[in-house]
Amino acid sequence: MDPLRQSPSPCSSRPSSPKTPPCEIHGYVGIEDVLDQLKIKAMKMGFEFNIMVVGQSGLGKSTMVSTLFKSKVWKCTPPGLGMPIPQTLQLKSVTHVVEEKGVKLKLTVTDTPGFGDQINNDKCLRPLDIELLQRLCRTVNVVPVIARADSLTLEEREAFRRRIQHNLRTHCIEVYPQKCFDEDINDRILNSKIRDRIPFAVVGSDQEYLVNGRCVLGRKTKWGIIEVENMAHCEFLLLRDLLIRSHLQDLKDITHNVHYENYRVCRLNESHVLPRGPCWVNLAPTPPGPPVAPGPSKVCRQAREDSDDEEDDY
């Protein structure tokens, strides 16, 4: 996976017609300097990224996130398996600023302690998992992983992966990267390879060990050291490349331009309230019946014109 790949926004601006000819420039204008301006602004403001980890207690969710960003996300250790099982699900969020080579990332991680702890899991998607994924995939980008993959043999891991993929297709659960957002042949080739490997089999660890004269992140067992960043041992590198090095901006774009817009328009239709203005739209009442959640499709809403008309391009 190319770490320098830049994924285009799902709602990026495009020419109105593919036949529109380019305008010839007869001298230097300085348009290319816009890239330098954007870089300087991004370096000053930094970036934001939100992650929610969902899974049973003891799967190593906090360790996996700490390994992803090579920093301590949680200052204190979350309750382990020996602690009482929470009776209700209460979300917990922590925010840290991670800085690398002058680039600041405001990272917010939301944990779901107690999720599914009282339900048996026989190496398959449970009804609770299916219900949750069906709801989440319409609202956020979902990236499933096989946690603690070192507890499975290679044959068991592949069989588990195929079983999960079959369940996702059977229940129409669209995980990231979604096929409908592949904008060109390069996107389709790269994302198809990613989709074939999802869910990633990962191992997390914040412990370093000396292996063949070099320090590596890994888990020590009586059979040897399981290296987190070794593709022969697990697929942690694929997960990190997807979330950070190649698709981070694309994840943010889809969340903002698709998932949030679908959610916003859905709520506006439910409340039948829109600010009156030049492009005011009267939304018809929702017909009786079960509400239909919006799917992960690219939408163009006339309601957005209100805010667009007020923005200046200067």
Produce the secondary structure layout.
Layout: H1 33-45, E1 47-53, H2 61-69, E2 92-100, E3 103-111, H3 127-136, E4 145-146, H4 154-170, H5 185-197, E5 200-201, E6 208-211, E7 214-221, E8 224-227, H6 236-246, H7 248-271, H8 305-310
Parallel strand pairs: 1-3, 4-5
Antiparallel strand pairs: 2-3, 6-7, 7-8
Keywords: Cytoplasm, Cytoskeleton, GTP-binding, Nucleotide-binding
Domain Septin-type G: 1-270
Region (Disordered): 1-23, 287-314
Work out the helicity level: 25-40%
Mean pLDDT, as a whole number? 79
Q: Report how far the terminal alpha carbons are from each other.
A: 37 Å
Protein structure class: alpha/beta
Q: Shape, please?
A: globular
Number of discrete helical segments: 8
Which band does the percent of strand residues land in? 5-15%
What is the succession of H and E elements? HEHEEHEHHEEEEHHH
The beta-strand count equals 8
Q: Any idea what the radius of gyration is?
A: 23 Å
Task: Going across the biggest sheet, name each strand in turn.
Answer: 1-3-2
Q: What are its keywords?
A:
314 residues, three-stranded mixed beta sheet, three-stranded antiparallel beta sheet, 14% strand, cytoplasm
Walk me through this protein's architecture:
The chain is an alpha/beta fold and 314 residues long. It contains eight helices and eight strands. The strands form three sheets. A three-stranded mixed beta sheet has the order 1-3-2. Strands 6-7-8 form a three-stranded antiparallel beta sheet, with no helix packed on it. A two-stranded parallel sheet has the order 4-5. A hairpin with a 2-residue loop joins strand 7 (214-221) and strand 8. Helix 6 (236-246) packs across helix 7 (248-271). The radius of gyration is 23 Å and the shape is globular. Mean pLDDT is 79; it is low at 1-18, 77-82, 280-288 and 290-314.
